[in-house]
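Notes from the 1:1 (GR / supervisor)

We went over the backlog. Supervisor wanted to see one worked example end to end before approving the batch request, so GR pasted a single chain during the call. The sequence is below; no edits were made to it. Supervisor asked that the structure be written out right there so they could see what the output format looks like.
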Amino acid sequence: MRPARLLFFGAAAFIGGVALSSATRFPSLLQLFFLGAGIFFFIASFRVPRAALCAIFLFGCLLGIVRHTQAIAREDRLVERFENLMGRPEPFVFSGTIMRDPEERRGSLRLVVAPKGEQQGLILLVTDPFSNWRYGETISVKGNLQAPAIFEDFNYRSYLAKDGIYAVMYYPEIVGLGRELSRSPAEAAMRLLFKQKMKWKEMVRDNFSPPQSSILAATLLADKSDWSDDFSTALNRTGLTHITAISGQHITIFSALLLPVFLMLGLWKKHAILLVLAFVILFIVVTGFEASAIRAGIMGTLGMTGTLAGRRSDSIRALVFAGALMLALNPLLLSRDAGFQLSFLAVLGILWCHPYFKSMFKWLPEMFGIRDAGAMTIAAQIFTLPIIIANFGSVSLVSPITNILIGPIAPLLIGAGLVFLIAGSIAGSAGAFLFSLPLAFLLFYFSFVAEAFSRFPFAALAVGGFALWISVALFAAAGIFAWRIRKERMIYW
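Structure output shown during the call:
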């Protein structure tokens, strides 16, 4: 069996091991059983080559279980340390460094701070929205240290803990101690990127008014600070929120815009692709390391690396490798990050079921990519439906229609938006205004569709546990029928 195939099954087994460990704690004795069985099949593979697949599967599962177990043990240790600090009657005073780009929310500014000294773990500060704090600044903080809340339908404490945040302080006293400009070149580059991101936000706000500015800022910069409650509800009711999330489409269009430019400048193809990869990484940093952006970046990197090596990249393998790599870095994403779950299941549905649904939707016209948009929408929605029902308890009934209407213009919107940002950065306000004119029409169309369909009384339907089981059945049926189509057309992993 080829090494690439063994590596694929090993990565898939690693994801399975993380999933098993997320569902239940595995005692050390059971982990030793996995290790012993894996060694047995590895030895047997010298006589029976197919036994190597069983060995890879068991070792992969074991690695996933061990990695998740280590992450849980570290979390328990840090939670206990912070709980000891929270029990004190006096205010908690510490100095630390702002580790992420401050996030604007309606009515507040959120800072993620790493305390100096022996205290590990991060603290989330919720402060005045008009504060001018920036990434990399060192600050002194005094306030009440609290544990993140656990709501009836959402465990905010676990959600923050997956990102290494174990405590919250609401509106503490903050004093700036200056910037540590002598830190690593990577952090200096991060500061410059986030400074440029602020300029792009202002450029968007200067050229567009809400909700068009909100759509563009979310779609290109992963910034939802200007979203109103009404517009957010409209996107949820119409199933269009995913259009504004950073995805593989962004990476593809971004790469397609940059690669010809570098080639025209006289770079060799190899050097041009490497430079595009560098800009893709910078784009992921600017957009805030969203799970969907990281997944798309890894898949894009694997695809371009395959091009450099003269080999064709398989999308499903790339998706599995991307998932395994992300879970190796943070195994808590699988069970605690709905964005991670939705991103991977949506892409899996599109890659796995798109040929099946495209053959079903022959009655849709192919012009403007309408048939492709319909097939991809249904495939993605069926695969993400169980997660949507489990997390949000509602389903958009108009989503297939709105996605067929918006899907074909999404690449135009992303491409025109990127050109708008680049032109504004090079030519200033005049260039931004010139390229904002065609973009304004696309943004108006997007907002019109979202707001018009959200007004329908049947746009979204609240559902319960029975609907969850139906969605799981649909998920399984779509996967089985798609497998038959792929097998008939000899489409394999």
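Supervisor's comment: The chain has three domains: 3-85, 92-183, 190-488.
Batch request approved.
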